[in-house]
């Protein structure tokens, strides 16, 4: 089996309540719609994670919840360190990723874009609910494909 990493940004969040802390912002209706659609697309492409590392922010947890019809039985770990993390912090979180299989990290921007760039040397725009599949061969990461909600 190949070592794979899915880097996913949370679905679209709401700014409706200006009194909420950023960490506590929920998904808006578009985010609630996109999460299951992206999960279906991931599953149809056989991008099924065996471990999901997810930020502790409300919007990332709700994104994961919206994907539960496809990935509800997948082991997941809430990682507060993913919230608004830079590349260094994300790499620390990924030290526990699977050596053989598929790990998903569900977080935020700009961290998602920066992580993909750091690992692969490629730049990919990651709008809300976007997911990128990277594969590692002999220590070299390659972006295989990116799913964006507006493209499915």
Model description:
With 152 residues, the protein is of the alpha/beta class. It has a single domain (3-15, 45-151), classed as 3-Layer(aba) Sandwich (Rossmann fold). It has helices at 29-44, 58-66, 68-71, 87-93, 111-120; strands at residues 3-9, 51-54, 75-78, 101-107, 131-137, 140-147. A 6-stranded mixed sheet has the order 3-2-4-1-5-6, with helices on both faces. Strand 5 and strand 6 (140-147) form a beta hairpin. Helix 1 packs across helix 2 (58-66).
Instruction: State mean pLDDT (0 to 100 scale).
Output: 96
The coarse silhouette is: globular
Kindly report the spatial arrangement of strands forming the biggest sheet. 3-2-4-1-5-6
Q: Poorly predicted ranges (pLDDT <50, ≥5 residues)?
A: none
The CATH class name reads Alpha Beta
* Class per helix and strand makeup: alpha/beta
CATH homology-level superfamily:
Phosphoglycerate mutase-like
Strand content: 15-25%
CATH topology: Rossmann fold
Report Rg.
14 Å
Put simply, the count of helices is 5
Largest pleated sheet:
6 strands, mixed
N-end to C-end Cα span: 27 Å
Helix percent band: 25-40%
Please trace the helix and strand order, writing H or E for each element.
EHEHHEHEHEE
- CATH architecture classification name: 3-Layer(aba) Sandwich
- Number of E strands: 6
Our count of domains comes out at 1
């Amino acid at each position: 089996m190949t070592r794979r990493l899915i880097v996913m940004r949370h679905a679209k969040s709401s700014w409706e309540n200006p009194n909420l802390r950023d960490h506590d912002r929920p998904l808006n209706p578009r985010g609630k719609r996109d999460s299951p659609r992206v999960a279906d697309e991931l599953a149809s492409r056989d991008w099924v994670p065996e471990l999901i590392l997810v930020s502790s922010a409300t919007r990332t947890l709700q994104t994961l919840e919206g994907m539960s019809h496809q990935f509800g039985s997948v082991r997941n770990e809430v990682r507060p360190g993913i919230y608004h993390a830079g590349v260094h912090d994300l790499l620390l979180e990924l030290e526990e990723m699977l050596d053989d299989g598929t790990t998903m990290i569900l977080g935020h921007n700009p961290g998602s874009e920066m992580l993909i760039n750091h690992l692969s040397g490629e730049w990919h725009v990651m709008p809300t609910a976007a997911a990128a599949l990277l594969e590692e061969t002999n220590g070299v990461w390659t972006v295989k494909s990116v799913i964006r909600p507006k493209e499915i």
